Amino acid sequence: MKLLVTGAAGFIGSHAAQRFLARGDEVVGLDNLNNYYDVRLKEARLARLQAQPGFRFVKLDLADQAGMAALFEREKFQRVVHLGAQAGVRHSLADPHSYVSSNVVGTLNVLEGCRHQGVEHLVYASTSSVYGASTRMPFSEHEPASHPLSIYAASKRSCELMSHSYAALFGVPSTGLRFFTVYGPWGRPDMALFLFTRAILAGEPIEVYNNGHHQRDFTYVDDIVEGVVRVTDRVATADAAWNSAAPDPASSRAPYRIYNIGSHRPVELLSYIEVLEECLGRKAERIMKPLQPGDVPDTFADVSELIRAVDYQPATPIEVGVRNFVEWYRGYYC
After folding, report:
1. What is the pLDDT of residues 237-274, one digit of tens each?
2. Sign of CA dihedral 11, 122, 118, 113
3. CA 13 to CA 16: how far, in whole Å?
């Protein structure tokens, strides 16, 4: 297939593009290479992709309406994997406008491209953060996600709602994947594992929020990408059993689906840090801090629907995943 992968120089986007290329797909990778974090890391991810046949890179901002329309018109993509976004819960408190521009306006431009060029299937990244104030565990797609606690979460929930509108109005098949705390090699420098590793190796203290007692459904990037690929191959369809008198948020009478994608094995942050310390062979000096604004105390994914739909089977324990990250980090930075 010919695919557009947005955010191709990003963490998950670069891994997904690699996986599609490995099976012989043609991939056009889009990224604006912004400076939210070290551009050199993005360029290094991109260089790995550009070394492979079947990949072409387009530097473009998702919020560029004319540029996005021209790209879709020129390339005639069969399917779109929309992983580009302004990420980060805490940064969204400081710069909310960038989240509306990239995530809301950018996704609208992607939807318009899919609509006008007859794209067969749009798969896009959402987030576990949309569950917000809910504490009903494990999080289920069949429960409402109506109380986001950050602008980041609100922007991603907006993407889900717009996608449903395009599915209902224009028949654009779309599937949203709510990612749960993705980690692994080539990860983002603003994520906990990256920050902790850098500080511990430098002999600096780490800041542990919520005193380390919150849990996260840490999900290894290879498991995430396997799910992304499988979902891309399964075009969203209408749910014949959908009942408007008791509407299911996970599906619709339009070709629209929402799935959680996580490990289904939540781990307490303190245990996660202990695994990292063992992999590094060093102990961390910990500065305990309260839960930060916009953060949720715990995440726990019910992935039963994704298992039923595409036989998704997350298989990487944190001991293996963290070790793989540490090996990559030392090889890249040390």
Report:
1. 999 999 999 999 999 999 999 999 999 999 999 999 99
2. negative
3. 5
DSSP string of 261-321, one letter each residue: ES-S--EEHHHHHHHHHHHHT-PPPEEEEPPPTT--SB--B--HHHHHHH-------HHHH
Collapse the DSSP code of 101 into the 3-class scheme (helix H, G, I; strand E, B; otherwise coil) and give the result: helix
Closest CA to 200 of 272, 128, 299: 272
**What is the spatial distance between Cα 248 and Cα 226, in angstroms, rounded to a whole number?**
26
Residues 6+ away with beta carbon under 8 Å from 313: 307
Residues 6+ apart with CB under 8 A from 86: 36, 92, 98, 99, 101, 102, 103, 152, 155
Distance CA 294, CA 151 (A): 8
Structure tokens belonging to residue 250: 């996970």
How would you classify the pairing of strands 219-220 and 2-6? unpaired
What one-letter code names the amino acid at 114? C
The pTM for the full model equals: 0.96
Between 132 and 297, name the one with better pLDDT.
Answer: 132
Task: Give the DSSP letter of residue 38.
Answer: -
Closest listed residue to residue 150, CA positions, set 103, 190, 96? 96
Q: How many helices (H) and strands (E) does the chain have?
A: 12, 13
Whether residue 97 contacts residue 212, with contact meaning beta carbons closer than 8 Å, is answered with no
Token pair in block for residue 100: 């509306």
Catalytic residue, from 152, 166, 183, 329: name it: 152
Q: Tell whether the model's pLDDT for residue 294 goes beyond 80.
A: no
The model's pLDDT over 176-194, given as tens digits with 9 standing for 90+, comes to: 999 999 999 999 999 999 9
Active site residue 152: yes
The answer to whether the CB of 48 falls within 8 A of the CB of 36 is no
Distance CA 268, CA 132 (A): 18
Identify whether the C-beta of residue 130 lies closer than 8 Å to the C-beta of residue 153. yes
Write the single-letter amino acid at 55.
Answer: F
Alpha helices of the chain — where are they, by DSSP H?
A: 11-22, 39-50, 65-75, 91-94, 96-99, 106-117, 151-170, 192-201, 221-233, 269-280, 304-310, 318-333
Q: How many residues does the chain have?
A: 334
Cis-peptide into 138, omega within 30 deg:
yes
